[in-house]
Design brief:
The structure holds 2 protein chains of 2 kinds. Chain A is of the alpha/beta class. Chain A has helices spanning about 10-15, 30-40, 60-65, 80-85, 145-155, 170-180, 200-215, 310-325, 390-400, 410, 425-429, and strands at about 20-25, 45-50, 90, 95-100, 105-110, 115, 120, 125, 140, 160-165, 185-190, 215-220, 225-230, 235-240, 245, 250-255, 255-260, 275, 290, 295-300, 305, 340, 350, 360-365, 370-375, 380-385. By secondary structure, chain B is α+β, with helices and mostly antiparallel strands. The complex binds flavin-adenine dinucleotide.
Chain lengths: ~425, ~80
């Protein structure tokens, strides 16, 4: 008997046969992709797999829970019924360990295989461990999941003194938790300023003062050389490279994220720090997409590869990825990310890529008001606003529209800056 | 999650500009949003609203509902 090869036109298949979509990761990127896929493809098979034990929750509110200010319930975003109602298969407690792009399958730690037509990797990152002695001792916390927040809350409520390490956006959450829980603390930083790659001394000093008011003492030119532990293996002391000793029965570490790229290794999917995608969130594999913190995407505004680590961006990438999984090329990701700090009585917002740039401009207006803009090739690529967030719309517009602000940077930081203040082409935007 | 402000679409019950009031206790039944979940326009409105002042958001596009709490420099209830 002669074998007949049947080729199904992909467009026909998409329209007539139900597609199967598998999403790995039920964070905001994966969950928003599932929602969009269901809206776009009512008949598709959609499976979302997570190694966590609970469905999507609000990762950016877990700090408020750890502070003791929010109960658990409002932090949950989706009940399991949310998935049932949308006919989305939710698979909890399941770690995907292998991807076979040719066979179109992913395999879980227990050997279960999931077939897909299109795959979305929305797998985020894992906090980086400090490579020093005793960094895995009891009482030392990293902060990414709701379970981490529960452990932190339980512990900090009993703690006498604390040390926080990591002078960035997650470290300050840990410092704010110790402050909210009235535990005296030391915040050990390298260099002389909090988030020194995005803030100058002037800007950082506003944050330092706010921390001091809350009984958290910034310690500069410090860090951790090793931890000391008691006979039960519980941390007692952080010892810094200057051999200064800081008593701490609670330690919080937030020195960065390792992106969860281990499962990509050997698959042929391009990655570096994160998974490479184009502006449609597609990898170099036609049927594999990525979204959220894990992506190093082609940033249309910056004109180069970039990585965002923010809720709004991850959500938008999930939505855009889903649209392009259904119809490739239908919508591009073009987004100015932002991230705020809400722990103090003055507002703080960073946007775009505030640590990049070949130039910058900044101005201080009062003890709690300051601005800095990062500029690259004459264009705004990011910034930090402290005290007054109202100019964010103007700066983001200039950034989004890639307006050349060369020679006009001082105008940009006039306290009452208006777009009309810019001369020539820039002002016409 | 289908709206600009990260809210379900079924709750667009804001028909006149709402106001904000600082609160200190959050009941378990409250819907709570972090500032970073909100649209740029709502963020600017919140950051310029005076305490107990009117919130300059467009009731037809925002999905914030009365009774929702926003975590900003303090906890603000929309009412
Ligand atoms: C404490 C904290 C505070 C933050 N505060 C803010 C803030 O104020 N503003 C802001 O904009 N952003 C904030 N962020 C950052 C923001 O939460 C992230 O940018 C966003 O949640 C990223 O979403 P994601 O879906 O890309 O990744 P994630 O939320 O990390 O989700 C990835 C999911 O995939 C799962 N996973 C990974 N690998 C596998 C695998 N192999 N198999 C199965 N499942 C897997 C993970 O367990 C995880 O559940 C904060 C983050 C933290 C931790």
């Amino acid at each position: 008997m002669r074998e007949i090869a049947i080729h199904i036109n992909p467009e026909y298949k998409r329209r007539v046969m139900s597609q199967s979509y598998v999403i790995v990761g039920d964070g905001i990127a994966g969950a928003s992709a599932a929602e969009t896929l269901r809206e776009e493809e009512p008949d598709a098979d959609i499976t979302i797999i997570t190694d966590e034990g609970e469905p999507l929750y609000n990762r950016i509110l877990i700090k408020e829970f750890a502070k003791g200010k929010l109960p658990e319930a409002p932090i949950s975003i989706h009940e399991e019924s949310w998935y049932d109602d949308r006919d989305v298969d939710l698979v909890l407690n399941t770690l995907i360990t292998d991807i076979d792009p040719e066979g179109h399958t992913v395999t879980a730690h227990d050997g279960t295989e999931f077939d897909y037509d299109k795959l979305l990797l929305a797998i985020g990152g894992t906090p980086t461990q400090l490579p020093v002695e005793n960094s895995d001792a009891d009482g030392i916390h990293h902060f990414w999941t709701f379970q981490d927040a529960r452990d932190i809350k339980d512990h900090i409520e009993q703690a006498d003194n604390s040390v926080v390490i990591g002078a960035g956006l997650l470290g300050i959450d840990l410092a704010a938790i110790t402050a909210a829980q009235d535990v005296e603390g030391k915040y050990l930083m390298r260099g002389k300023a909090w988030w020194r790659y995005a803030l100058s001394q002037d800007g950082a000093e506003i944050i330092h003062n706010a921390l001091r008011e809350r009984n958290v003492e910034p310690v500069f030119d410090s860090g951790v050389d090793h931890f000391e532990v008691d006979d039960d293996g519980h941390v007692t002391t952080a010892v810094d490279p200057n051999d200064d000793h800081y008593d701490a029965d609670f330690v919080g570490i937030a020195i960065g994220l390792n992106f969860n790229t281990e499962i990509i290794d050997g698959t042929g999917i391009d990655y570096d720090n994160g998974i490479h995608t184009d502006e449609y969130m597609r990898t170099n594999h036609e049927d594999i997409f990525a979204a959220g913190d894990i992506t190093e995407f082609h940033d249309l505004i910056l004109g180069e590869r970039a990585q965002n680590g923010a809720w709004g961006s991850a959500k938008e990438q999930g939505t855009i990825a889903a649209k392009n999984m259904v119809e490739y090329g239908s919508e591009e990701f073009r987004w100015v990310s932002s991230y705020s700090i809400t722990h103090f009585d003055f507002p703080f917002l960073s946007f775009g890529h505030p640590t990049l740039g070949d130039d910058h401009v900044e101005a201080k207006y009062s003890d709690t008001e300051w601005r800095r803009l990062a500029i690259k090739d004459g264009k705004i690529v990011g910034g930090v606003l402290i005290g007054d967030l109202s100019p964010q719309t103007k700066y983001k517009k200039l950034m989004r529209e890639q307006v050349d602000v060369s020679g006009q940077k001082e105008v940009l930081v006039k306290q009452d800056f208006e777009l009309d203040d810019l001369e020539g082409a820039a002002a016409e935007q | 999650m289908s709206s600009q402000d990260g809210q379900p679409t079924s709750v667009a019950d804001v028909t006149t500009p709402p106001t904000v009031v600082p609160v200190s206790d959050v009941p378990s039944s409250a819907r709570v949003h972090h500032f970073d979940e909100l649209s740029e326009r709502t963020q600017v409105a919140l950051s310029t609203a005076t305490p107990t002042g009117r919130l300059d958001i467009d009731p037809s596009t925002t999905r914030l509902s009365r009774g929702d709490i926003v975590v900003f420099t303090e906890y603000l209830r929309i009412q």
